Amino acid sequence: MAHSIRFEQFDDFLLSKDEVRDFIDMFYRWGDAKFIVRTDKNERKVRGRHCVDLGGVHTVSLVKQNIARDFQRGTTIGGNLRAPSLKCAAGMVLAHELQHANQSKLHKQEEGFYRDHRYWNRACERDARQFVDEHIAEICAYFDVSAPVRRKGPTPTGGDSEALAVAGLLSECSEVSMEDIRDELRASGILTPSSVRLVVEHLRGQEIDIK
Question: Fewer CB within 10 Å, N or C, the chain?
Fold first, then answer.
């Protein structure tokens, strides 16, 4: 037996259907399952989305324009690292969504795992980002590129690009608090007044509400 994978509205994406199939085989850790994989040309914020119905069918939506946009900005993608190539960025997003598929088996009845008023505090999101970080070597090896290394502190240019990477992470949320901004900058080791201002200005430019 094998996974049942159906492609719907899968138009002009960064990965081929065969590459998507390979990633499902590589990163979905349970037995044979049913997947629907589609692309979304209307979504403005998120790069990917996973949902599972009562019949256990997993639907993974992937957003090419948002992945390409954030890759060009140098945003961390899928996990807490920057993608070394555009195809790798798409693979990191897909791996993130496949970990959500894995979670649906492990955490079916755990509402607290999925809910928190702050997006970045949700255990499911932290787990999915960590999953991509843990498998970054395999993802990059698949595309024959060198794996990235996470920096612990500011960049030589003063940390602007690292702050913009944090802004990119937060831009997936429809609503962000100042506490969210400070927490993410602190975790990246670049909590300064200028980095806070840069993130706030970037988010407001993306029409993200800051509470």
Answer: N
Rounded CA-CA distance 9/157 in Å is: 42
Question: What range defines the domain where residue 126 resides?
Answer: 4-142
Q: Which of 96, 111, 142 is the last residue of a domain?
A: 142
CA 152/CA 10 separation, integer angstroms? 38
| pTM flag (> 0.70) | yes
Residues 103 and 164 occupy one common structural domain: no
Phi, psi of 4 (to 5 degrees): -95, 115
Q: How far apart are CA 146 and CA 84, in angstroms?
A: 7
Least-confidence region, from 38-47, 64-73, 119-128: 119-128
Q: Give dist(CA 84, CA 87) in Å, integer.
A: 9
Give me the number of domains the chain comprises.
Answer: 2
Q: What is the DSSP string of 110-144?
A: -HHHH--SSGGG-HHHHHHHHHHHHTHHHHHHHTT
Which range, 49-63, 108-122, 187-201, is most confident? 49-63
Rounded to the nearest 5 degrees, what angle is found at the Cα of 164, between the Cα atoms of 159 and 165? 95
Query: Quick check: is 148 in a domain?
Result: no
